[in-house]
Structure formats: structure tokens, C-alpha cells
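Case study.
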Amino acid sequence: MAKLPLIDTRPAKGASARKTTARTPVNRAASPRPSKRTIGATERRAAIVAAGLEEFTAKGFAATRLDDVARRAGVAKGTIYLHFKDKDALFQELVRTALGPLIVRISNPPIGVGGGSARAAMEALAETFAREVIGTRRADIVRMIIAEGTRFPQLAEFYYREVIAHGIAGMRKLIEYGIARGEIRNPKLAEFPQLLVAPMIVSVIWQGLFGQLAPLDVTAMLRVHLDLIFNEGRAA
Amino acid sequence: MAKLPLIDTRPAKGASARKTTARTPVNRAASPRPSKRTIGATERRAAIVAAGLEEFTAKGFAATRLDDVARRAGVAKGTIYLHFKDKDALFQELVRTALGPLIVRISNPPIGVGGGSARAAMEALAETFAREVIGTRRADIVRMIIAEGTRFPQLAEFYYREVIAHGIAGMRKLIEYGIARGEIRNPKLAEFPQLLVAPMIVSVIWQGLFGQLAPLDVTAMLRVHLDLIFNEGRAA
Amino acid sequence: MAKLPLIDTRPAKGASARKTTARTPVNRAASPRPSKRTIGATERRAAIVAAGLEEFTAKGFAATRLDDVARRAGVAKGTIYLHFKDKDALFQELVRTALGPLIVRISNPPIGVGGGSARAAMEALAETFAREVIGTRRADIVRMIIAEGTRFPQLAEFYYREVIAHGIAGMRKLIEYGIARGEIRNPKLAEFPQLLVAPMIVSVIWQGLFGQLAPLDVTAMLRVHLDLIFNEGRAA
Amino acid sequence: MAKLPLIDTRPAKGASARKTTARTPVNRAASPRPSKRTIGATERRAAIVAAGLEEFTAKGFAATRLDDVARRAGVAKGTIYLHFKDKDALFQELVRTALGPLIVRISNPPIGVGGGSARAAMEALAETFAREVIGTRRADIVRMIIAEGTRFPQLAEFYYREVIAHGIAGMRKLIEYGIARGEIRNPKLAEFPQLLVAPMIVSVIWQGLFGQLAPLDVTAMLRVHLDLIFNEGRAA
DNA sequence: TATGAATGAGTTTTCATTCAT
DNA sequence: AATGAATGAAAACTCATTCAT
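After joint prediction, the assembly is written out as follows.
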């Protein structure tokens, strides 16, 4: 399974800072001082986004200092403002690009690839989730969205439209497929695809808050959950 | 069902400010002009806690200004410091007392009251949750704990010990009861009581982030979830 | 030699707080609650002065909190204001009364008691100083006057008039007595009695600042100083 | 005699603020409008130190507001924090650098320059002191060290090590030289070089506290003191 | 008189944002 | 475009002083 890129650092249209022109890598090869100048603006922007991600997920929006972001990104503080209008813009942009690639995957569950079962698809998803999210930076991102979402309504809306809606639709498709194949007996499940991902969300939260105190065997839990969904796991 | 008090404003022992003496509620109801002094210290403290709750849940820890808390509580800024050592202490104290009464309820599921089924008990719980949490201040509190928990490890630990552990134990008891009665077929569910509450947690998050855009029929969803747990809802 | 009272707690005329009336001990014997009320106002005032002395000498004027003074004095914060107009007044009053008794002694050197030598008188003084000032609270007071004097010109003036001037006069008398007796050869010393006490002042400062690092044998030093004054201590 | 620089404004190694890079004085004299940026960081730092000196000596540590220091230095409040970690650091740094150059002089008394007498050396020192300290900012600094030293033990220790110890050693050397030459008869004076400088210290204190009321002829007093030390001034 | 809770002006410190270079 | 020193508004916290009881 191809490794997912952690973040998508391509500048989002319209969400970037003042200048939209000259976003092309500048690459002044003739420059006498080859240090910073040879790094393209795009790479620099990516570095800021990556650094911001680290800092924001670790400390939350308000407690993150742009000074730290700049230092981590290896740029001057002012440079951030060449790429992002302000702290808000950086944060939103960063969250926007953070989960994109993952969600694309979730939105398009590998239904019936090779005539497979819905359960198999769901298991693949759960496994991907456990491996690619739990215990990684992505879990921090999910947690951060939950944490800061209320304070950034446009962000929540963006997320709903661009990510959640697709994810829910994908889940629903998967459920309907399962129903059609007779794997899932309760047809009303299709109305609440959230039930499919709820344990995943809760896993992220649990590990974030209580992981030190009482680690959760996420994979095992997700398996039990699938047993419920797919009506198996009866006593003997 | 008796209405739960939204918050428990009794000062937690040891968590209050410098002086512990003479904090007795004076409550001189006969006073003609209810001056500041006639308001008992307890009420004043409660006002601060309530105001803090509003502000913290609305803006998060870092973005909340004690100035605003004071204004909302109708006290001077300095007064907060008579009751709480600092912003941190106010926050933690407030979160600590916020869910107490509710959790007591959740921790002791009404198992087999009147020889009832596990499903009935679970339904009562779900209904209580939908009514007493969703759409109320308590939802904000839960969201806030999720949001800020990572930055307040002691708080997370406190919550785990005082609330979560009990809640999980209660759920497990309920599950085992259901298994014993034959209502629940998958015995492995008892290992992950989190699965029982996951949809509730997700409801809170969903309504907080996307409630405006795509309100969720929490009650209905929880019913479907119970159908999964209790193995019903097959295509009739 | 009689032990000097550490401080003179008699209220200074005119320097006290609002009410000058009813300074007489109130002694309400009929009071049902005999605790605080049975303590005379004078004792209470004395307690405040004593507590203030401790705190001010330890932390300096600005860094001293009236809260601490009140706590140490065993009274409520408001009570301080019944006796002193404000922090300034307390400080000044306190410094005024602090050294009085000692200075009275210094101002009236025991010249020729029993036809004794000037040197004997001076030695007695030095010994008193080493014993009753160095290493005691009084040293702190001296240091405090030096430290805060510049910020309290009226206090400095008071001190000059009431204490220093007398002390200088006493020293001069002693010097002149010594000159008359032929014990002191340099008559110009009488113009600068400060030279007589300079080592004492320096001792206080030294012990306060460097006493931990390099303690000074004050008594020995003062003896050498007297040898200089009285022209002795030549080799062999 | 060359005029001593009042303060040493070179940043002390390790005591300065976060960034140590690019602190080189830029000093673009050709600039038409000497904007803030054209002022070298060193000059700016010096301005803060100078302003701090004024304020601290005038009001003492606690009563000095950084706002005033900033205003006097012509910088914004935040700028102080670019150079000094906090108020404490500014104060200590400032006191540390304040007397350096002077003390170097005192520590190395011009013993026997040109085969001169100890008395001549001591007289030169006294004269330097009267001229370069009494009535100048330096007197304020000395007074401030005496005043605040107790509250800044590290500062006191620094002063003892870097200044006092050297000064005392220098004095002792001078005394021993005087003893060797037969100018000083009391050999025990070498044990207490403090006696040599005590009148200087007292002069500083006296002028600071009582200078307005009863100015002291410091030069004359120091001369009498030297007569005592050098066993002269007998009634002719 | 005595109390001590309440007040709010005042101070330190932080940090997003700007802008001269 | 990039830098990073400078800015100053904003926020936490303190504490002298007041005043209802």
C-alpha cells in the first residue's frame, strides 16, 4: 500500500497571502549568495506549513507562537507573512491541506475490488486507519480539528464540504454495498454512516487523552466493532 | 426524571484560594439593598465558575480573557484571584466540577431496575444523554475537555480516574448483564465498552462542528446503534 | 548593661492615622467575644509596627505587602488603616520609632563616668554596638534606612534632626573630651565625628551584603579603629 | 587624569538576550534620516542601560517601571525584552557593568609610582574618589548596591568576587606598603582594609541622605582620616 | 473598632505584525 | 523576496485601599 504523503503542500487557490504572482520556483542560479535564495518559494512555503503543523498540533492555535513556527521552518518571522496573510490564514490553510490526501482514500472505499466483500473493504479501511492515523501526526491533526473547529466556523464548513461530506458518502456507499450483499442486515445503518467511523474518532481521542494511562488496543476494538456491524461474533 | 444540576458549584476541597476560613454563605435575605457584600461567597464563586464555563467553552482556554469572565460574573478581575490561584486553577476546577453529577448517573447504569432488560437500561441512558447533554452546555464541556485535555495532563488524568474509569466500568457491567441475559451475543464487546459510548461522543463533536450545516438526529442514530449492539434491526 | 527595647512602640504624635482621639486602651471587658477586643489598641498598634519592621527590613518598602504585615501582626488588613494613613505612613512611623532608644544612648556617651577615659567610653560604645546592633534586627533597620532614605526625604530629614544630629553631637563631645584629656592628638577630628562611626556603618553594610561570603570580625576591626583614633597600636 | 567612562555599555557575555548574532554596530552615518534601524543595536542597548541606571538609582528596583525606562531610552517597552530577559536581568546587568572601570582603578592603587609614599597614593585615591564618585551618578550606583544588595544575593556575590575582593586586596597591598615604609605604625590595619575605605562609603551615604541638610566636606574629612591612618595631625 | 472581601489601577511580560534594510 | 529588530496592544496577575458589616 502506497505511503500517504503527510501533507499536501500545494498552495490552495485564493487562500494564500498577498502576492499570487510569481509563485513559480524562483531559482536564481546566478545569485552570488546561494543560500536561501536557491530554495524555491514553494519549498519554503511547504516548510512553513510543516512547521506550523507541528506547532499547532502540539500547542493549539492560541498557544502557538509564530516565532517558533519560523524557527522550526528555518525562515525569518517576516517570511511567514509573505506567504500567509496572518496567523489565522496559516492555520486554516494548514489544516485544509493536512488531511486531504487521506480523506481522498477514505472517500473512495475500495468497494468490491476483486469482487470482495464489504467487510473486507471495511477491514482494509480500519487497518489503514490504525496504521496511518493512530499514533501518527495525523491523529494530532484530527484532534486539533475537533479542538479548534468551533472557533473557526469557515474551517468547519470547509471541512464538512470538502472532507466529511465525501467521507460520509463513501461510507454510505460501502454500507449500501454491504446491505445489497446481505452482509449488513440493518438497512437503517445507511442513514448514519457516522456509526461506522465513530470508534475510529473515539480511538484518536482516547489515545490522545488517556493513551499514557490506559492504552487502547485500537485494532482489536475496531475488529469487535466490525463484528457488530456485520452481525457476527455471536457466542460460538 | 429529575433535572440534573448543570454544574456543581460547591468549592472543591483544596482547590480553592488562600483563605479557607469564613467562607460560610451569609445570605442576608432581609437586606434592603442586596449589596455585593450580602451575596454569599459561595454564590460569588458559583458566578465566577458559571461565567468561566461560558467563556472557556466558547473560546477555549488560551483565548479566554479573565477580564471577560469577571465582567460576565459581575465581579472585579481581582475577585477571581480570591477564589482561584490563577487562570489554570479556575479552568481545571471548573472542568472538574462541571460533569460530576452527570457522570455519577452514567457510572451507575440502572441495571435491571424492575427486572428490566439491558437494552432498556441502555436506551434510558441514551435518552438521558440526548436530552441532558446534546444541545446543552454540557456538550460544550465535553468538547472542551477533548480540545484542551492534551494540554492539561493532570486534568486528563483526573478525568480518567474520576469519570472515565467509572463510566467504562459501568458500561462493562451493563454489557455483561446483557450478555448474561442473552441480549448481547458478542462477548468480546465487554472488552471495549468504549464502543457503547462512541456514537455519543461523536454526536457531541458532530453537533459542535457541523450542527449548523448538517444537524444529526442523535436520538435516531443512537437507536440504530443499539440495534447493532443488541443484534436486532435485521431486514424484517 | 540594661537590654534596650528593640522598638519604641509609643505612637508618635501627629504621625498616626485619622483619629487622634481615643487612643486610650479600649478594654471592653463586657464584650461577649473576648478575643481581639480585649487587646488594647496600643498593643495592636505595637504588633503592627513590629510586624512591619520585620517585613520592611526583609523585603524593602516597595516589595513589602501589607497583607503579610497584617498576617504577621495577627490583625486584619483593614486594621492597619485604623492606625496608619497608608503604607507610607506606616513605614515612616516605624522607622521613626525603630532606632530611637538606641540613639538616645549613643547621643549621650557615658563621658567620664567615674572619671573614665574617652577611650573607655568609646570602647563601651563599640562593644554595645557590636552586641546590640550587629547581627540583630537593628542592623537591618540601619540598612533599611540607608536603602530607602533617598525615596523618603522627610524621613531622612526627620532622621537627621532627631537622630543623626544628636548622635554627631554626642560623638563630638566625646572627641573633644578625648582631646582635652590628651587621648586624641588630632583636634581636627572633632570636625568630622562621622569618622568615629564610619566603621560601624560599614560593618552593618558588610555583614548584610557579604556576611555569608566573608564574615567580618567586627569587634576586632573596631578595636583597630580605636587604636588609630587614639594613636596607639604602633609597632612594638 | 583621564575621565572615566561613566558606564561600560559593552554587552556582558552570556548576560544578554536571546539572539547573539548580528549584533554588530551598523552605524550608517551617511543615512539622511537616522531612522530607528540605523541606530546600531549596541547603541540601543546602551540607551536602555543608561535609562535603566537613571531610573533604578532614582527609585530603586521595585519602584522603577520598565515603561519609564523604555520612554527614557526612547524605545518601545518590548525592545527592552529583546536585550534583557526581564526586569531582574536588566537590573543586574546594569549594576554589573556600572562600576567596572572605576573599580579597576581602585583595585590597582598606584603604589610607589615614582618612589612615592603610601600616603601620596592614598591621597590620590581619595581625591579621585571625591571627584569621580561623590556628587556623580556613581554615588547613586554605590548607594543602590547597598540598598538592593540584600535582595539580590547573586549580585552581592558577583560584587564581592569581582569588585570588593579586588578592592580589599589593593587596599591591603597599599597598607602593607605603608607599613614597610614606616608610614603606618599599626600593622594590624592590614587585617582590616575596610577601615581605609569606610569614610568613603559613609560619605556616599551621607551625601545621599543628608547632603541637602548638612553637606559634608568630603575632601577635608578624607584628609583628616588619612592623618589618623598615617599617624599625623597631632596637636602641633 | 475590627474585619476581610472586593475593587481596579497599575505593572510586567508576551507576541502578532510591521517595515527599513 | 527575505530578514529580524522594533513595536505596542493586550493579557495575566498584584496589592494598596475601601467599605459594608
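Observations recorded in class. Chain B has two domains: 37-84, 87-229. Chain B has ten helices and no strands. We will return to this complex in the next lecture.
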